[in-house]
Design a protein that fits this description.
heterodimer, A: 107 residues, alpha+beta, four-stranded mixed sheet, 5 helices, 4 strands, 51% helix, 16% strand, globular, B: 79 residues, GMP Synthetase, Chain A, domain 3, three-stranded mixed sheet
Chain lengths: 107, 79
């Protein structure tokens, strides 16, 4: 399957998807680690994570998918939310909690 | 080697900024970007404008760029 198609499936079939370097247990980059911590602070500890270090096609393809050159990338309900800077800003303003609230109610 | 100056120049050349601050160590950079072009745009769209200003080559060379993107009005309120 085409990598863009694979990504599309991942983000639409899972309510919360984080593309990151490493795993939530062992993040391999400070920004990915921050993204996991922000999700956890919002009460989201179970989410679909993709370790881009283990999949070169996704690592490359994800940058084109959202026209976003960096990792981590957070998707909620199929929509690109942002990278770690945006996640932190949205957490500090309370917006991220609101975005994630709808997802938590589904679970 | 990417320098603070070259990152600053790259952003400033591609995007008209009211105010631009860049800090960094050659690999990791932090930028405060204040631009009128951000008005009415989402955070994602604002960051995309900065990435676009930097262009492909520099994006490859910078390991990480952390940024805050504000309109002049937001910047004033921020101070």
């Amino acid at each position: 399957m085409d990598v863009q198609q694979r990504i599309k499936e991942q983000v639409t079939q899972n309510p919360v998807v984080l593309y990151m370097k490493g795993t939530p247990q062992f993040p391999q980059c400070g920004f990915s680690s921050l993204a996991v911590q922000v999700l956890s602070a919002c009460g989201v500890n179970r989410f679909y994570s993709v370790n881009v270090l283990e999949d070169a096609a996704i690592r490359d393809g994800i940058k084109a998918f959202a026209n976003w050159p960096t990792i981590p990338q957070l998707y909620v309900n199929g929509e690109f939310v942002g990278g770690s800077d945006i996640m932190r800003e949205m957490y500090e303003s309370g917006e991220l909690q609101r975005v994630l609230e709808s997802v938590k109610q589904q679970a | 080697m990417v320098t603070v100056e070259s990152v600053k120049h790259g952003i400033g050349a591609g995007l008209a900024c009211e105010h631009l601050e860049v800090l960094g160590d050659g690999q990791h950079f932090q930028a405060l970007v204040v631009a009128r072009a951000f008005a009415g745009k989402s955070r994602v769209q604002r960051h995309q404008l900065v990435y676009q200003a930097l262009g492909e080559r520099m994006r490859e060379e910078i390991h990480a760029l952390s940024m805050r993107t504000l309109t002049p009005e937001e910047w004033q309120q921020d101070g």
